[in-house]
Design a protein that fits this description.
It is a single chain. By secondary structure, this protein is of the alpha+beta class. It has 2 domains: 225 residues, Rossmann fold; 100 residues, no CATH class. The protein contains 8 helices and 18 strands. Strands 13-12-11-14-18-15-16-17 form an 8-stranded antiparallel β-sheet. It has a 6-stranded mixed β-sheet with strand order 6-7-8-3-9-10, sandwiched between helices. It has a 4-stranded antiparallel β-sheet with strand order 2-1-4-5, covered by helices on one side. The two termini are 35 Å apart. The mean pLDDT is 90.
Length: 336
Amino acid sequence: MLEVHHIFKTYEGKPLLNDISLKVDTGETICLLGASGSGKSTLLRIIAGLEESESGYISFNEQDLTATPAHLRDFGLVFQDYALFPHLNVHANVAFGLKMRRLAQGEIAERVANSLDLVDLSGFENRRVTELSGGEQQRVALARALATRPRLLMFDEPLGALDRTLREDLLNELRMILHRTNIPAIYVTHDQEEAFAIADRVLILHNGEIVREGTPADVWTDPGSAFVAGFLGLGNIVEGKIRGKRKDGRWEVAGVPGVFSVSCEHKHQEGDNVHLLARPLPVEGEVSAITGVVTDVVFQQDRFKVTLDNGLYVYLQIAPKAGEEIEVRIKVECLA
């Protein structure tokens, strides 16, 4: 099990990583999700031993790795730019780390073959990597990382250079490979779709701190803050003021788009300022009815994004006309 203990790191005199602690269990894939500059790649490099923290330490199976150089940590790294050797063929690229470890030729050949089979590149051994597509090159980089049989795999924006369809295909295959090999992994990305598709657990970084942690389903259902809800694009973030409690136990909240009734477990008082999340999909159950005039309609995949004059947007299956007044029922949640 990998453990990160109270890592602190500054950049240009400002905290980049502020008391970061986390664990990665055997067979678990966690995702470090955050915007550019949130410190996620720096944290990955510290774990890998490529960069030093100013305080705190990394351990694996309770062994402190502070004095262990990167090449002896037995961690595998996969980067966005592949980091392949252009003058070597596929076999030689995958075998490189094994040769550095002075393994026998027979074992090298077996490991290369097994790794290429895992990433569905059997038969590509003699191809030059410069002749491969971006997706195939990333598979070679993954095979190279797998060949050394690392005790931890780390991915730094590995699919950022690929187009959407190829990225989705490779992401699905990568998830299956990680489950099959049972190797713990840390996956760094700024893309929440990637994070939610591959991770067993998501950690969202903001201003050098982990501001939300949980399974993808838990984080989606309960973002916990206006920042996380906005970063994940979960819906409309509305500022409101508590007007009081209704007889049914729900809070009445006045916001710019109107008055909402919200049930939550937070402790509020009349006059408190709160943030609300108005999810854009019509739902049943505890909902608020919102009326507005349509100002914009955009088709997105299998539905229409409809923007109203009160600033809210909703998704509908049937497109209303611009200028039409409509009423929609949406779920409104208190983010405190």
